Amino acid sequence: MRSVPEAVTAFATSTDDRPHYLSGGTTLVDLMKLDIEAPGQVIDLTDVTDLDFVREEDGDLVIGALTRMSDVANHPLVGARCPALADSLLSGASQQLRNMARVGGNLLQRTRCDYFRSVEFPCNKRRPGSGCAAIGGVNRQHAILGTSEHCIAVYPGDWAVALTAFDANLAVVGPSGTRSISIHDLIVPPGDTPHRETTLTPGEFITTIRVPMTPTARSSSYRKVGDRSSYSFALASAAVGLHLDAGGTVDEVRIALGGLGTVPWRLWDAERALTGGRLDDATVRAALEPEFRSACTTRQNAFRVRLGVETVLEAVASAQERAG
Q1: 324 confidence band (pLDDT: 50, 70, 90)
Q2: What percentage of the chain reaches a pLDDT higher than 90?
Q3: How do residues 208-218 score in pLDDT, each as one tens digit?
Q4: Domain tally for the chain?
Q5: Ranges for the FAD-binding PCMH-type domain (predicted)?
Q6: Domain boundary residue, one of 212, 234, 250
Q7: Measured distance CA(212)–CA(214) in Å, rounded
């Protein structure tokens, strides 16, 4: 496909009951190899060059959904206006994968839960109503926030966490036309329908990502902790944006968690608690403590509550340095 209308038409007129869009292919091809995805038709978007760009519009950072992760991460406009976005992209996958994967597809990557990706195990996300093997199984790397009795699979991405901290908006297109949705409304927690992962309707795909460029975004940071320093999914991650007034009081703060929730997890209450005060470890810890009261932990993953707090503290310290 060479244009957005051509791609949408191909989906709408497909005679296959499970057509699938492909951008970089770094997730879809993996899932096809594992017999988890089996599209009868693949609609290739990689030649839709109109969606490969990074630019500033009306004070917002606007990114085409088919721009490669590496191109966005290394773009000077991104590094200057919202460094947490660049941090998050550079912390994900490997350089080879970042040179292939597109930022729109990255938002839609599916969980890395071993039970989901192994067809011999029951998985409500893969086959609704079959059960969740992770709940009684090995769940050290599974979610502790936003879980349900049907699924505890963690959302695996880094990029979406940073976008969540800075209230990104997405333009999407499909057979029914175009619309705009908030990043907060894209990825949905499992609830009773863990197989429903996003609010995209059949045939829709993301075309652009728009991030408001605020003083908070300029002084921002993303920190990630995993079992390895590279090519590892987060045990905990945090995107933090910070704006201090001349006296060092918090004028605005943004905090989003990754690696701990079934969706990217915005810490709205902690942000409110920290606004108007001065930052130190004690005040940040006090603000974070209520956010984890609802955490659903097991003996295997309870350590990640403390890890989440420490990761936020690291991201706050880095954002403070960038704020000067």
Answers
A1: confident
A2: 94
A3: 999 999 999 99
A4: 2
A5: 1-216
A6: 212
A7: 6
Contacts of 17 by beta carbon, 8 Å cutoff, 6+ apart: 40
Q: Could you tell me if 233 and 184 lie in one domain?
A: no
**What mean pLDDT is predicted for residues 86-106?**
94
**Statement: the pTM of the whole predicted model exceeds 0.85:** yes
What mean pLDDT is predicted for residues 224-239?
91
Same domain flag for 58 and 99: yes
Q: Which of 165, 187, 212 is the last residue of a domain?
A: 212
Report whether pLDDT(231) > 80.
Answer: no
In 10 A of CB 58, how many CB atoms? 8
CATH number at 266 reads 3.30.390.50
Question: How high does pLDDT run on average in the chain?
Answer: 96
Is the pLDDT at 18 greater than 90? The verdict is no
According to DSSP, the residues that pair with 239 across neighbouring strands are: 222, 256
